[in-house]
Amino acid sequence: MSLSHMDKHGRSKMVDVTSKSTTRREAYASGYIYMKSSTLELILSGNVEKGAVFEVARVAAIMAVKKTGDLIPMCHPLNVTAVDVDFAPEIDKSRIRIDVKVKLAGRTGVEMEALTGVGVAALTIYDMCKAVDKDMVISDIRLIEKSGGKSGTYRREE
What we know:
Elements: E1 23-34, H1 37-45, H2 53-71, E2 82-90, E3 95-106, H3 111-129, E4 137-147, E5 154-155
Antiparallel strand pairs: 1-3, 1-4, 2-3, 4-5
GO molecular function: cyclic pyranopterin monophosphate synthase activity
Function: Catalyzes the conversion of (8S)-3',8-cyclo-7,8-dihydroguanosine 5'-triphosphate to cyclic pyranopterin monophosphate (cPMP).
Binding site for substrate: 74-76, 112-113
């Protein structure tokens, strides 16, 4: 197995997807942000001074998905057709699970877009709550599932 972003001389390159066929491609990524229980309570009560944490983080994730090609050097700019962002507070673990699902019809996958969306959503939550909790930890950002393209379907086994 070789790295597709390197030419035969070891130089960086963007993968040529010109001859690939357009197929439906989807990716689902997930991650967590851990925080003090009082911070989670503040978010859930809607009393964070900077505003509606989940809605701001949702918009940030969508924007990040659309801008992934500008952020990650070898990613192609993509015409993303759908982004779903969900937040699942886990009170017993004092964390929020962030799920991002991305879809398009294209020549390359959307795994990086989904992963970037999770990361930026978590960073946005951190930014909105850092005044009350600087100990938050962003963790376990990972691809859960992807479909489409030459490599077919992948599902993480946990």
